[in-house]
Design brief:
With about 450 residues, the chain is of the alpha/beta class. It is built from 21 helices and 11 strands.
């Protein structure tokens, strides 16, 4: 079997399979319409149509005339059809490896069939990582001068100033601040505060550190994320914003907050996936960050995926635990590592872990269930607990962060403030210690005394 025959075999498998999803960035608009036309025609006839046939189909079916223009622009001829399909439907690295390991791949196809051979081949590529020319190697003594130079830079005040901070003290202290090319996973029971913590981290990085932050929501609508962001930014009860029940002074304060947001233009970018009908995948995320790079000139520096449970993978898996492990693997090795992005995601605590919590027993990584698959790929795993049922009124307004894996520093357990009505999470040295003990009526009275001047606000 020649290389061309092998490529035709893979194209045929791609066209006939319903369980393969393609990068939407590579196939949009008329290119997507052209692909759909080619696929339909191929499945009916077993070969690709020529330019004249495509013209007849477009005219007869009253399809988008740009389909024919796109076909002509990419100079489709019989020998190029398959190359276009390969370039646009598959990753170039994959097919370099297919050609390099053709004999092995062909034996696998003959032995187990195209579908399983393809899945096994993808899995092996993901396991082996980047090509050999990207492997960094050398004797440890060869880099001592470079390491000493790097350490001296770390001591300098200029480098300290350039370090990005989460602005949550325990994370900055124990995770050494913002870390590129890393994966951090938060684990908690429903409703504890995974989304609030993730949004506070994104808010702080975009607002104070001027980072590009992409927030992918699989559960909350874009408008809901925006309301939480507004509550955090204005320190106004989110329920009052949602209900449209602000006092005159709070209304002025909210208007001022929105005016300042428009002026600051924080790079906090929201992607709402709640309406796409299926769970998003790492391929979708890669498409979104590439589109962001094309439009805004840089990749996001921090990616927040809310949350891991709502992702999916094209890898073959058995059970949700294995699926989440593959998703974590892809977030680290397909996104965080190659693009240098700090990825934060979260997942629900297992039933076993929740049961241990109810019995007030210690829980570690082994009791989280899914994280047994997640843990090898995450640099940091942090469990979240709240104290809403505590007799201690002050404790009710705190949330505990318990780090059970940390490759950047020590394991730690810290309690931080969580003011739910403001969607605020932070340390108790920011002048907010007294807020939990103040009644809601008193807080409204205090806020009403903080009137802002009327501001023209039209945009």
């Amino acid at each position: 079997m020649t290389e061309i025959t092998l490529q035709k075999t893979l194209i045929k498998h791609a066209l006939e399979s319903n369980d393969i999803s393609y990068n939407s960035e590579l196939l949009t608009g008329s290119r997507k319409d052209l692909y759909d036309l080619l696929k339909t025609y191929y499945l009916e006839n077993g070969y690709f149509p020529n330019q004249e046939t495509i013209g007849h189909i477009v005219k007869r079916e009253k399809l988008n005339p740009e389909i024919l223009t796109t076909y002509q622009e990419i100079e489709f001829v019989d020998s190029v059809d398959k190359e276009y399909m390969l370039e646009k439907l598959y990753d170039d690295y994959l097919f370099r490896q297919v050609r390099k390991n053709e004999d092995i791949f062909l034996k696998q196809i003959q032995k187990v069939g195209t579908k399983e051979a393809y899945q096994n081949f993808i899995f092996n590529l993901l396991q082996t990582g980047m090509s050999d020319n990207k492997v960094n190697r050398g004797f440890i003594w060869e880099s001592v001068s470079d390491r000493w130079k790097k350490y001296k830079e770390l001591e300098s005040e200029e480098i300290q100033k350039k370090k990005y901070k989460y602005r949550i003290k325990c994370l900055d202290t124990n995770l050494m601040g913002w870390q590129p090319a890393s994966l951090t996973c938060y684990v908690a029971s429903p409703g504890v505060g995974k989304t609030s913590l993730a949004l506070n981290i994104g808010y702080n990085l975009a607002r104070f550190e001027h980072q590009h932050v992409m927030f992918i929501s699989g559960e909350l609508l874009k408008s809901q994320i925006e309301t939480i962001f507004d509550a955090r930014d204005s320190m106004i009860d989110s329920m009052l914003i949602k209900s449209g029940n602000l006092t005159d002074s709070l209304r002025k304060k909210y208007k001022e907050t929105l005016r300042n947001q428009n002026k600051r233009k924080d790079n906090f970018y929201i992607i709402d996936t709640t309406d796409i009908g299926t769970n998003f995948t790492s391929e979708d995320i890669i498409s979104w960050i590439n589109q962001y790079k094309f439009q805004y000139g840089t990749y996001p520096q921090t990616l927040i995926v809310d949350y891991l449970w709502l992702m999916d993978t094209h890898m073959k898996y058995q059970g949700n635990s294995e699926k989440l492990g593959y998703c974590a693997f892809e977030l680290r090795h397909k996104i965080a590592k190659p693009y240098g992005i700090a990825v934060h995601t979260s997942t629900q605590e297992s039933r076993e872990g929740q049961l241990l919590k109810k019995k007030k027993k210690d829980r570690g990584m082994e009791s989280i269930g899914e994280s047994n698959k997640i843990a090898p790929h995450a640099h940091t795993i942090i469990m979240l607990d709240d104290f809403r049922n505590s007799d201690d009124l002050e404790l009710r307004n705190k949330i505990e962060l318990r780090c059970v894996k940390n490759t950047f520093g020590p394991l730690f357990t810290e309690k931080i403030w969580y003011l739910r009505e403001y969607s605020y999470m932070g340390d108790d040295n920011l002048g907010l210690v007294s807020l939990p003990a103040v009644s809601k009526e008193k807080k409204k009275e205090e806020q009403s005394n903080n009137d802002l001047p009327e501001i023209s606000f039209d945009y």
